[in-house]
Structures are given as structure tokens and as C-alpha cells.
Amino acid sequence: MKAAINGGNSVEVFDSTVVEVRTDAGLTGYGEICPLGAAYLPAYAAGARAGIAELAPRLIGLDPTQLSLVNHAMDSAMRGHPYVKSAIDVACWDILGKVRGQPVVSLLGGRFGESFALYRAISQEVPETMAKMVSAYGSQGYTKFQLKVGGDPDIDIERIRLASAQLQRGDVLVADANTGWTQHQAIRVVDAVRSVDVCIEQPCMRYEECLAVREHTDRPFILDEVIDDIGQVPRGHQDRAMDVINLKISKVGGLTKARQIRDLCVSPGIAMTIEDTWGGDIVTAAIAHVAHSTPPALLFSSTDFNSYVTVSIAEGAPQREGGRLAAPQAPGLGIAPRMEILGKAVYES
Ligand code: MG
Description:
This protein has 13 helices and 16 strands. It has helices spanning about 45-60, 65-75, 80-100, 105, 125-140, 155-165, 185-190, 205-215, 230-240, 250, 255-265, 280-290, 340; strands at about 5, 10, 15-20, 30-35, 115, 120, 145-150, 170-175, 200, 220-225, 245-250, 270-275, 300, 315, 325, 335. It has an 8-stranded parallel beta sheet. Strands 1-2 form a two-stranded antiparallel ribbon. It has a two-stranded antiparallel ribbon with strand order 3-4.
């Protein structure tokens, strides 16, 4: 599939990396990292593999169930590069769940209710096509829609207006610019849609630009790409820079750090879209465990990347039902990779 995410950027083929962590007790854990191309965040697929090859030998001998020690070792051996560390951390959580005989959702605090609501991303097209997609996905059970904007401001205004006309009572519409507007363009757009029931997500590249746009609108405001570290949450809260954050597991370095940020947001009531940059069945399972253990009032939305992609890489991954998803019940992530699809390892340590 093609994902057109902002002005000039689109991605047609996603390059995903799966990590297998083996233990001397015979258990294995799995994680997945799939950056959204090289132009989106400071992350790219070959970089993930190079970084994992650099880190992995330094982790041999550690106990994968001691997540703080594993993360400390990774952060000591490599500064930054959270996306490199994410799949390793997720694989260790998978092992921890298997050791304890519990799904990761239980280890993250427990399952809230039966399922949680997903958003559907709507790739950049002409406004009429995007509006039709809102209606089509609505009939599949989705109630939350994320329009990819961040292109020509006049066309984006039309996209938002036409899409909003398709909403049913209770639906949520987000216009996600993925950093694509300049500050003056963003201010024009938010002014033009001031009477539309729409949330604005990450209009510009830099935090300060987003903050300036925020000051020009009373639409609910979501920060995504700039929330790449736990320190951004108290800063944004202090500045009243956002109502919602977009928490992507690999953007912050894995489940251990995603949980820290999630729990930090719960206390002051900052809602979250919990997801990742992209991915398949293993990423979708990891997202489901975090999202399902988040208080529903603060789970703004989540997503099921395995329904966007054409290849299934694991059995047991959660499958969407009527626009909703549930974390697997089996121990760990609750998935088993399809080795016949993945092929031979490109690197072993
Ligand atoms: Mg976003």
C-alpha cells in the first residue's frame, strides 16, 4: 500500500526488522521495528539493523526479564537512537511475559474492558476521495479518522471540510499534518476550520512553531513527532502546548519507556494516541498491550497496522473487529512469528 503522509513524502514499501532474543532457558522473545521511511523521523530501516548489530553483542549474558538493567545497558552502550533499541526491549517484554505466564497487558497494569477503539489513517488524496474514505471506513465500524494533510493549505482546508461533513455523531476527526506546514500556512488552516469539529495534529516541524499555532486555535491539539522523549511531556504540559500526545513505541525506545511516558500522562490527564511509526503483526501486538492497559478516558485512539499491510508475519496477532482491537490473551506478546515468511536471519550474535 501507499502512505502519503505530508507534502512531498510518501512510502510504498515498508522495510520491517524482526528481532529474536534467545535465552539459555530455551525461551525466545520477539520484537519488530518499522520506521516510516528515512524522511519521517530520524530513523531508517537499515539503520535499525546496523544499530541492533552494534548493540546485541553487548547484551549477551544479561537477564532479559530485568528490563531496567537491559535498558540501562543499551543506553550506556549507545547514546540516543531509540528506534534501534525498541525491538530488543519489546522482545525482552515478550520473554518476561512467557516466564510469568501472563500477557504483556497484565504486566503493564491490566486490561481495561473488552477492547479499545482504533483510528483509521486516510492517506493524502483529492478532498472528495478522502471524504469518501471516511464514509467507507465508518461503515466498517471505525469512529476515529486521521486525515493526512500537511500539503497545500487550500486543498487541506477543503479536505478537512469535506471529510467532516461525513462524520456521524460521536465520531472523531483528526487533521494530521505530520510536520508538513510552515507556521503561517498552519495558522491559515486552523483559522479557516475554526468552526469545524476537528483536532489538529503536529502542524509544523518544530515545537515552538506548533506552540505558536496552538495559540491561534481553540481546536483540540495533538503533538506527535516532537514528543520523542519523556522530558517533552512535562514541558508541553507546562506550556499548555497540547491536549493529546501521540505516543509511538519505537520513537521513544520500546515498551519500557512507552510505559513510563504513558503513566506520566495519566496523572495530569493528558490523553494519548498509542501506536508506532509503522509495522506488521508484532508491532500491532505490542501496541495492543500498551493501549489496552491504558485508562479508556485517556486513550484517545490507537491503530492496527497489520490491517494496512499485505503480509502477515506472525500468528496470534490481534485482529480488528468493527473498528476495535484487543490485546492477545496468551503469555508475552501472544504471537508466534511465521519463520517461513521471515526467512533466514540477516545477522546473528
Ligand atoms: Mg501523527
